[in-house]
Amino acid sequence: MSSHDQIVQAQPQDANVLSRVIARAFHDLAPSTWLIPDSDGRARLFPGYFRLFVHEAMTRGRVDTTTERTAVALWLPMVQDGEQTPSEYDARLAATTGRFVDRFRLFDELLAKHHPSDIDHDHLAILAVHPDQQHQGIGSALLAAHHGRLDADDPPRAAYLEASDEKTRQLYLRHGYTDIGDPIVLPAGPCMYPMVRHTSGT
Fold it and tell me: Any idea which architecture 7-197 has in CATH?
């Protein structure tokens, strides 16, 4: 993808298909298998789980996708007093993840402990490209589209994310992110990497 022409803002009617794209893209990631070891369980529960985040980003942040709806980036605005958690989130999480809910709660808790609270920024909660469309520059185009908006803000805003593994960490390093703090270590599981992108003036 050589331009941003195919990047568009997602609409509410896109929520279901984009949730399925995320579920498919994230199915085999190490944090995903830590959350739900059973492959069939992930396939069954992940679309509903990720729909929670798509809905939240559509409500108070921004969801970018492609014209073909084969990739998605979820951005949530953050201020220094912390990210808002919808009051109904825990109930919806329990309803969506069933017997795995305690592991998902622990996952959320570990990520929250590493989240920077001293800078205003946008949180890249999810960046996902359907496996059939990966390695074509789509993820990079999604990043560049929102980075342009962040850089144009007055003052420019930072961005924060948690890379799911060393491979994605390397991708984000190439896009101007740097490590912040220690890796997030899931108990008896893989590491994730908190990263921040500063712009001039942040």
Answer: 3-Layer(aba) Sandwich (3.40)
